[in-house]
Design brief:
Length: 375
């Protein structure tokens, strides 16, 4: 969970007085508050949550005990006034900007979430007394390392999602459903387990399976068609994400070749995961293998992404990301081949990085493409 010292180091490394945060998942991570507002985290480790009248009572019930809650009426003016008071009280002088002869304080802000209009409003209130500097997604990088309690929430979400989808597939064997029907049954199963979707469920059949992020339609799922299911659940805000592709009939020829290609590419990439490896290298392993098998042009997205309080979060496993894998990270490995007018195959598992390699934390076996192996 949230570690104050990590955030203090982040702020101090930038020689700033604090960091202004608005992204809901980051606010929840720091305060346990699930509503809307702003958080100001100071270089001394103090945490202030700014909320308006709609959320003040809720915040007092949800927040960790050490969080200071400030009720505001005029968002920018009230927040800036409070920050000025705290900086003056603490006597914090953080940075000098030449050629100015007097110190100018700096505050980091969530440049990847706060809008330009918000930035402009804050800058107008701060005037020239405090300089705003971008945080460049730094909080998300702190969040990418999951502790035991966070991992347990993710594992619970995985279990809920898999049981709910397996139950939905069991009813599919006895009935004729549309893609939307299957998705709705899955959602119902989640609700019965006191959970919800971590993203809009994808249940695609036949030629529709070639749509990487297609939406379920009124198309009936044929008894001998391809079925691609991409699904997830939540537990205490933490999410899961998993995809399997099965053939409801007797798969042969090209389908089997593509399935073997995608599955083998995924397994090769997973086998190379360990602390210190570049994310771009993992993407390259899978991409090169799929290309070697002749399907490279049909793999149209990156290899994976982090999962936690957001369904897509740092790290991103792509050819453009040369950052290193770290112990404690949770991310997906999901190669796919999508052939328009024919079918698509994606295989996605979640991995938890341990000292010596990756532990796959999703449980549905994907070495075979028959629905009988799932249910």
């Amino acid at each position: 969970m949230f570690n104050v010292s990590d955030m203090v180091s982040l702020v101090m490394d930038k020689n700033a007085c604090g960091i202004l945060i608005k992204k809901p998942s980051n606010i929840f991570y720091i305060t346990n508050f699930s509503g809307e507002g702003y958080v100001y985290f100071t270089c001394k480790g103090e945490i202030i949550l700014y909320v308006d009248g709609r959320y003040s009572e809720r915040a007092s019930k949800e927040c960790f005990t050490k969080i200071k809650i400030v009720k505001i009426k005029e968002v920018y003016k009230d927040i800036v006034t409070d920050i000025f008071k705290r900086n003056a009280r603490d006597g914090v002088t953080c940075r000098k900007y030449k050629p100015a002869l007097v110190p100018v304080m700096a505050i980091m802000f969530e440049s990847d979430y706060i809008t330009y209009d918000e930035y402009s409003a804050f800058r107008g209130e701060f005037k020239s007394k405090i300089k705003l500097i971008p945080a460049d997604g730094a909080v998300s990088k702190i969040r990418s390392i999951k502790d035991e309690s966070e991992l347990n929430y993710i594992l619970e979400a995985v279990s809920i999602a898999e049981k709910s989808m397996i139950d939905a597939l069991k009813t599919l064997k006895k009935n004729v459903y549309t893609e939307k029907d299957l998705a709705l049954i899955y959602k119902k199963n989640l609700m019965e387990r006191r959970s919800q979707e971590s993203f809009e469920t994808i249940t695609l059949s036949g030629k529709n399976s070639s749509l990487p992020h297609g939406l379920p339609s009124e198309k009936r799922i044929g008894k001998k068609s391809v079925l691609l299911c991409d699904f997830g659940a939540e537990r205490n805000g933490y999410k899961s994400d998993e995809t399997f592709t099965v053939h409801l009939g007797n798969p042969e020829g090209k389908f089997l070749d593509v399935y073997d290609t995608v599955y083998s590419a995924q397994q090769k990439a997973i086998s190379k995961i360990k602390p210190g490896v570049k994310f771009s290298y993992l993407d390259k392993i899978a991409r090169n293998y799929i290309d070697k098998r002749g399907y490279g042009k049909y793999f149209t997205h990156s290899l994976g992404h982090g999962v936690g309080l957001n369904i897509h979060e740092y790290p991103y496993i792509s050819k453009k990301n040369d950052d290193m894998v770290k112990e404690g990270m949770v991310f997906t490995v999901e190669p796919g081949v999508y052939i328009e007018g024919e079918f698509g195959i994606r295989i996605e598992d979640m991995c938890y990085v341990e000292e010596k390699g990756a532990r796959v934390i999703t449980n549905i076996k994907k070495n075979k493409c028959r629905i009988e192996g799932l249910v």
